[in-house]
Design a protein that fits this description.
The protein is of the alpha+beta class and 475 residues long. It has a domain of 225 residues. It has 7 helices and 16 strands. Strands 3-6-5-11-10 form a 5-stranded antiparallel beta sheet, with no helix packed on it. A hairpin with a 5-residue loop joins β7 and β8. α5 runs antiparallel to α6. It is elongated. It comes from Deinandra increscens subsp. villosa.
Length: 475
């Protein structure tokens, strides 16, 4: 008697309801045959070796880098060793797994027209790869020394040797290149004000030209009139008066030209100090305090004194009877200025009275009148011209000939911690206190006790009593 529900008998003799399940396909048996050791050869590594197929030589991989991405500074030797070890490990793994020769090749990427995965390269390959098997996206990097470090920038900034490592030198380093680079950077830096040879105080340069030429014209007319009266009437009184007045004026001009610098220094020292706390905007003041360097400190030219705000190096030559002149106005049997280097930058000054700190704007081409004393550093003559190689090197860097001349080098500077006096105009901008050059030259007035005529100070006045004093205030 048949039932409505189908049933079937199991292998153990029991009857169960339902239809029997269709027979399952049996998986192919895995071969247990061990693959022999390949020794790192890709061609003998089975299906895994086909991932790295290409026209390579059998044996160890080359030491060229397999990929270069953002970390382009990895060294080639180290990456070659890693690639070689990883390939050997993968090949031995492929050889040690049973049945690896019968496993199907799979791919999760795009296929070409033959059904094989498309292989691409994202960077330069090793020397064993050709352009026919892989594509390169950039040139090969230089061979770098094996350091084992991966960086995001260039390893070395200097020259390399033939193997790609840093070039070594067994002798002493030559500092002339670094000195020339520092000199060039100082000259090209816009924050540094370069003062010319005419930056020093001169009486005839500061004296009004209109007054000078008016006096010259007046004396010429007086001489002509005196000579005419002497020839017509025979009275020499006017000629004597004109000659006496001319002699007095000439002596006065010579005295002022000789004592003009000392007179200005006396005027600066006698000018009263102003407290920055009570100074008004636009007021001409004199501030005395301690110097602090700004963003661009200077270094003296010859002695290499660091952390300076003002440097001055002057070379003088003595002219004998038959020697060459140092400049067009150099007279015989005197010292003449041949070369001068004066530099000044912005700096800070802390007022002695109020303790406030102000920025002195002497950089970026500002008008500055420096009154800083220079001290003699070295004297050179025929007997000791080879005694100072540093001085000979200093002359060579500036294309100055030494010959057999008598030379004297003087240097002055204002280093950080020195006490100075600054004269300028106060300017306040958003709680920032600054001292800037005055818009017009400041007259010094007449000094009748010393028979000094009035002079003018154009720009910021910078005064330091003793720049070479080693006892500075630490800041």
């Amino acid at each position: 008697m048949s039932s409505r529900f189908p049933s079937h008998q199991l292998n153990n003799g029991l009857y169960v309801s339902g239809r029997p399940e269709p027979p399952k396909e049996k998986a192919p048996p895995m071969s247990s045959t061990a693959v022999p050791y390949t020794g790192g050869d890709i061609k003998k590594s089975g299906e895994l070796g086909k991932m790295f197929e290409g026209p390579r030589k059998s044996g160890q991989l080359t030491s060229g880098p397999l990929r270069t991405g953002s970390m382009s500074s990895g060294n080639a030797a180290h990456s070659g060793q890693i690639s070689s070890h990883s390939m050997n490990r993968m090949s031995s793994l492929s050889g040690g797994v049973p049945g690896s020769a019968s496993m199907k090749k799979t791919s999760s990427g795009p296929l070409n027209k033959h059904g094989e995965p498309i292989r691409k390269a994202s960077g330069p390959q090793g020397q064993g790869l050709t352009s026919g098997s892989r594509q390169n996206s950039g040139p090969l990097p230089p061979v770098l020394p094996a350091t084992g470090l991966l960086t995001s920038g260039p390893i070395l900034s200097g020259p390399l040797n033939s193997s790609g490592g840093p070039r070594k030198s067994s002798g002493p380093l030559d500092a002339s290149g670094s000195i020339k680079s520092r000199t060039t950077s100082m000259v090209k830096n816009q924050a540094v004000t370069h003062l010319s040879q005419e930056g020093s105080h001169s009486f005839f340069r500061n004296f009004p030209k209109i007054v000078f030429w008016s006096m010259v014209l007046l004396f010429v007319m007086g001489f002509i009139a005196a000579v005419f009266i002497l020839a017509a009437v025979g009275n020499p009184i006017l000629l004597v008066v004109v000659v006496v007045l001319f002699a007095i004026v000439s002596l006065s001009f010579a005295w002022n030209a000789y004592r003009s610098r000392k007179a200005v220094i006396k005027f600066i020292s006698e000018y009263p100090d102003t407290e920055l706390r009570t100074a008004k905007d636009g007021q001409f003041v004199k501030v005395s305090g301690v110097v602090t360097c700004g963003n661009v400190p200077l270094e003296s030219s010859f002695q290499r004194v660091p952390r300076c705000v003002y440097t001055s190096t002057s070379l003088y030559e003595y002219r004998g009877w038959d020697s060459k002149a140092a400049n067009p106005t150099h007279r015989r049997f005197t010292w003449g200025l041949r070369s001068v280097e004066r530099h000044v930058v912005d700096f800070y000054i802390s007022d002695f009275q109020s303790g406030l700190r102000a920025l002195v704007k002497t950089g970026y081409g500002a008008r500055v009148n420096p009154y800083v004393e220079e001290s003699a550093v070295i004297d050179i003559n025929q007997s000791n011209k080879d005694a100072s190689p540093q001085f000979i090197r200093w002359l060579a860097e500036r294309n100055l000939s030494s010959d057999d001349r008598m030379m004297r080098l003087k240097e002055g500077y204002i280093k950080e911690g020195s006490s100075v006096s600054v004269m300028g105009v106060v300017q306040r901008n958003d709680n920032v206190l600054m001292i800037v050059p005055p818009p017009e030259p400041v007259p010094t007035g007449c000094q009748w006790t010393t028979c000094m005529l009035p002079a003018s100070l154009d720009g910021i006045v910078l005064r330091c009593d003793d720049s070479s004093n080693p006892d500075v205030i630490p800041v």
